[in-house]
Write a structure and sequence with these properties.
Length: 408
Amino acid sequence: MSNPRSLQPRRRNDRQAPRPFHTARSINLPTTRPLTPGRPSWRGRGPFFAPLVAALLLIAAAATTLYGMSLTSTSSASPDPGGAVRDGVTISGTIAIVRDGAVWGVTGDQIVQLTRGTTDGEIAWSRAGDWLYFIRQRDETGTRRNYDGSTTDLKMRVPTLFQIAVGGGAEESLLDGLVSQGGSLTNSAFIFDPAPGPGGSIYLSTDYRGPSGSGDIGSDVIIRYLQPSGRVLAPGFPDYAPFGQQDPAWNSAETELYYVQNGSGAKDSVSRIVAYDVANTTTRLFSGRGFIEPAPSPDGRWIAATRLTTKGTDVVILDALSGNVVAEVTRNGRSWSPAWSPDGTSLAFLVPLGSRAALEIASVSTAGGVPTIAASVRVLRDPVDPGVRPAWGSRAASGLAPAVSPSP
């Protein structure tokens, strides 16, 4: 997930912000509900944080002052002797992070630049770790028709879903959010949270629907999936207006999909994690109120998540059967965006660092039957973008992406 979110209302036809915003509303979900596809009923997208949490957590994302730091990079051919990875830290596989809108990969004791964009975010690895998915934003001017027949220009941020091989190569566009609405009329879809799923599908939080390149905008931003053919379909999960859904995440067996049904009460978040059972085509409430960013462990026994409270946000671990919290990575309200290592022995997450964020890793042991957390270590010398969740892939990335325009 990227970009700061707020609970201030925003008109749905304002496409300048990369995510829609909306007013607070409490929701109550049933504990179990059969999957009954239906027409979505709202336009908009859920908030990333509860009102009191937003200011505490991502002060960096809203700040305009940036550090005078540069992220020291290494290419596969020429490692930098200074390096950006802290001494004694070695990463198995690749942790993808974003700084200044470009995707970087931390692998071994090095860091390599994976994209040359300036607005890249929403990163995810394929199950095998051979493909990296990300979303790039670009500025466009759209046109809408008014009631009197005249037209009005719109400032838009248009997302595009890309993939790039772990070994480098050309970036491939998979889904562009620019939508033609007849004649010279254009608009932009919202596209977030790519989550590779069964059969080559990619699950997303989006209001785009229909064939890639000729689709249209649905009535809300919910969990949908991009087929290999390029068509975007909705599985029909229950939708509770006006907050919508976010953060799709598959377990390793691809038997359950976890996602967040958004909501906010008067004082705190009531966003909840929902689990969809593929075999039974049913959804059930998985967590209590105030949980987002589910991350299933590789063995499927645990779900890491970000817990929202009035104190701030903390990375916690929940039991995959009961949904109960069994371990707290932090208790100070200053961590978010968990990502498991491919072997399930570590969790990467973000913590505040001035006006940005720092990448940290905590060791996770289950020798006693439930997870226990060892002290975390900071991975990089330099800060990262606080609004982009890390993604940990199983293969080592190498090389710098070929030069491309930031705007597809």
